[in-house]
Write a structure and sequence with these properties.
CATH architecture of the largest domain: 3-Layer(aba) Sandwich
Number of strands: 15
Radius of gyration: 23 Å
Oligomer: single chain
Order of helices and strands: HHEEEEEEEEHEHEHEHEEEEHHHH
Number of helices: 10
CATH class of the largest domain: Alpha Beta
Number of domains: 3
CATH superfamily of the largest domain: P-loop containing nucleotide triphosphate hydrolases
Shape: globular
CATH topology of the largest domain: Rossmann fold
Strand order of the largest sheet: 10-9-8-11-15-14
Structural class: alpha/beta
Strand content: 15-25%
Largest sheet: 6 strands, mixed
């Protein structure tokens, strides 16, 4: 199957998938480029085509187990039918997911098999360090590499941009940081050098920070709809669905609608990794269950008072830690109730048969 392996490389295939893939004589391997109302736009070396899930599959799976943008799938196509049928999803190398919006305690998939997540914030109106730390937790939880991109530098004073870069460094964030302006094109070439053929990059950020405008420029045409920029420099974002796009240079990008809410679920290890400095300090506290709010001998508070770390950083760590833990407990409880109900249904059916 070496030939198929080679033809898939341009779509993001790698040895990681090759070592885990199961080739089937009646099915081909394709990648999910978009999801729209239960139908899937797939892409393979021959081009793009639509597909649906095999009968019954959608009813037997949780939402985050269904195909999403970036997934690799086994698909069957009849010679006389351009519409394919998806039978299975290949193992995911990385995921980008969040807690479902609202009170539902479930995972919502954003993209799969992403190599790098580009976290976009506008340095003119959108810069928010706490939100940036939240994004980083979400990216690390899924196994992708993060990159921070500050846009609209033409609308911000140099001193403001310098202060934002200093805040990122002071927070102990080690992800690469780039800056650019879609208007003056300053920094765009440096960003393009980040994009490598056969690698997948997912853009995330609030509405109107310039994600789609940047991708339009990378594509070289107005493929993605964007709104005009308001008088404050805030764009009117109009991207309505996630879509995998192959650039002329060979890199693959995923644009996303702006996310107003992205709760963390089951990401405790990533929270600890993102705030490793605070976690290490906490080991020196006098009390093992120190809450870092006022206990004597608290090494974290001593570091805050000395200026080693910022109080806001500690507060954000505590908030993310508690949020992830609470949602994970709720999720585990919900899964247990679902399993118990499933067992009850099976027992009732068995009794009816008898």
């Amino acid at each position: 199957m070496e030939n198929q392996h080679d033809t898939l490389l341009g779509l993001g295939w790698s040895d990681w998938f090759e070592h885990r893939a199961e080739y089937r004589p009646t099915e081909a391997i394709a990648r999910v480029a978009a999801v729209d109302r239960g139908q899937y736009l797939l892409v393979d070396p021959t081009g793009s085509f639509r597909a649906k899930l095999a009968g019954g599959c959608s009813h037997r799976r949780l939402a985050h187990e269904l195909p999403c943008v970036g997934d690799w799938v086994h698909v069957e196509r009849q010679p006389d039918n351009d519409f394919g049928t998806i039978h299975t999803i290949l193992e995911r190398r990385t995921v980008l997911r969040r807690k479902s919006v609202g009170n539902v305690v479930e995972y919502q998939m954003i993209a799969a098999n992403v190599d790098c997540v580009v976290i976009v914030q506008s340095c003119q109106f959108d810069f928010n360090l706490k939100r940036l730390e939240r994004y980083l937790v979400m990216v690390k939880d899924g196994g992708a590499e993060p990159c921070i991109l500050l846009t609209k530098t033409d609308l911000a004073e140099p001193a403001v941009l310098a202060a934002q870069l200093a805040d990122i460094q002071a927070a102990g964030i080690i992800a690469p940081v780039l800056t650019l302006s879609n208007v003056t094109q300053e920094g765009v070439d440096a960003f393009k050098r980040l994009l490598h053929p056969g690698k997948t990059y997912c853009f995330v950020g609030s509405s109107g920070v310039g994600k789609s405008t940047l991708i339009n420029g990378l594509i070289g045409r107005e493929m993605l709809a964007t709104g005009a920029v308001s008088g404050t420099g805030e764009g009117r974002h109009t991207t309505v669905r996630r879509e995998l796009i192959c650039l002329a240079g060979g890199a693959l990008v995923v644009d996303n609608p702006g996310m107003r809410e992205f709760g963390v679920l089951g990401a405790e290890n990533s929270v600890r990794d993102s705030f490793s400095g605070i976690v290490e300090l906490a080991t020196r506290c006098r009390y093992r269950d120190c809450s870092h709010t006022g206990e004597p001998g608290c090494a974290v508070l001593e570091a805050v008072h000395s200026g080693e770390i910022r109080r806001e950083q500690v507060e954000n760590y505590q908030k993310l830690h508690e949020e992830s833990e609470f949602h994970q407990m709720s999720y585990a409880d919900k899964r247990k109730k679902d399993r118990d109900f499933g067992k009850y249904v099976k027992s009732v059916k068995k009794n009816l048969k008898n």
